[in-house]
Write a structure and sequence with these properties.
Radius of gyration: 20 Å
Number of helices: 10
Helix content: 25-40%
CATH class of the largest domain: Alpha Beta
CATH topology of the largest domain: Rossmann fold
Largest sheet: 6 strands, mixed
Strand content: 15-25%
CATH architecture of the largest domain: 3-Layer(aba) Sandwich
Distance between the termini: 39 Å
Number of domains: 2
Shape: globular
Strand order of the largest sheet: 2-3-1-4-5-6
Bound molecules: guanosine-5'-diphosphate, magnesium ion
Number of strands: 9
CATH superfamily of the largest domain: P-loop containing nucleotide triphosphate hydrolases
Length: about 300
């Protein structure tokens, strides 16, 4: 048998566990995960290589009905990923599904996108650690009737159960082809992008209400600091939409931004496997989520 390879988009509503699955597949934390919906804003590749196969998974923002330029950008990222992919993993949340007695309009809408893209699809029912297994039968049944899925795979992205079956189902359906990336490469995203995401995750986790949704992080400098401890110096700017949000992000006597910095540094040191000096500043880019120009100014490339 020859070498197989392909792109596989992971799509679904916000918060179903798409990024958690990507990290599980990679065996390392690449995509940021929080309990809040709409954590992921860009399409993020995670590359998994075997001796006979390479799968490029595309983690995507959740598909939802959001207003504003940023939300539209996010949904476009997800839908465009469908068109890049050879196959689709459509993810739903077991905990929600076992209580429902029908497929809700949001999921129907996403199925419509999969249908339009004409891609083979696997249904992934995530978070099965939260439900009784026998309650899944009616869920499997109604999704099997709604769409000609190639396979239906219940799993727990968090705990890992069922993830091997998903890989098995995907592998056997991939086209024959060459590797897209060298073995060992984890993502096609730049180091600066990953750094900015790790910082954004902490801001997302530590703030509330609309503030997390108004933060964008741009890495300004990444510089080797020669000397005996070989520090990597990183400077980044957190952009917010309004002055009041700047106040919250900086915090009383700078406490909040210090906490964001210290937590981000710990994760970055683990990811980059070296010591880091991290300097953060906060800047207001008025209403950046509301215009293309705003998005561009805080580092989005449409
Ligand atoms: N219990 C449980 N929680 C999960 C599982 N997968 C993800 N989560 C949680 O669901 C939340 C959203 O996860 P995330 O990966 O960010 O979802 P995304 O928005 O679809 O990318 C986080 O709090 C995760 O820890 C799972 O298999 N079981
Ligand atoms: Mg995500």
């Amino acid at each position: 048998m020859g070498f197989h390879s392909g792109f596989v988009a992971i799509i679904g509503r916000p918060n179903v566990g798409k990024s958690t699955l990507l990290n599980r597949l990679l065996g390392t934390k690449l995509a940021i995960v929080t309990p809040k919906p709409q954590t992921t804003r860009n399409r993020i590749t995670g590359i998994v290589s075997w001796p006979d196969c390479q799968i490029v998974f595309l983690d995507t923002p959740g598909i939802h009905e959001g207003k504003g330029t940023l939300n539209r950008f996010m949904v476009d990222e997800a839908i465009n990923s469908l068109l890049e992919a050879d196959m689709v993993c459509f993810m739903v949340d077991a905990e929600y599904e076992v209580r429902a007695d029908d497929i809700r309009p949001e999921e129907q809408g996403i199925l419509g996108h999969v249908r339009n893209a004409v891609r083979p699809a696997i249904l992934v029912i995530n978070k099965v650690d939260r439900v009784e297994k026998n309650l899944l039968l009616p869920v499997l049944d109604r999704y099997a009737r709604a769409f000609p899925f190639e396979a239906l795979v219940p799993l727990s992205a968090l705990q890992g159960d069922g993830v091997d079956s998903l890989v098995h189902e995907v592998k056997q359906r991939l086209p024959e082809g060459e590797r897209f990336y060298p073995e060992g490469q984890l993502t096609d995203r730049s180091r600066d992008f990953i750094i900015s995401e790790f910082i954004r995750e902490k801001a997302f986790l530590l703030t509330h209400q609309e503030v997390p949704y108004s933060v964008a992080v741009v890495v300004d400098v990444v510089q080797e600091r020669p000397g005996k401890d070989r520090l990597l110096y990183i400077a980044a700017t957190l952009h917010v939409e309004r002055d009041s949000q700047k106040g919250i992000l900086v915090g009383r006597r700078g406490e909040m931004i210090r906490q964001i910095g210290s937590q981000a540094r710990t994760d970055l040191e683990a990811f980059l496997k070296r010591r880091i000096f991290l300097e953060l500043r906060v800047r207001v880019e008025k209403d950046w989520t509301r215009s293309d120009r705003g998005l561009t100014r805080v580092g989005f490339t449409p």
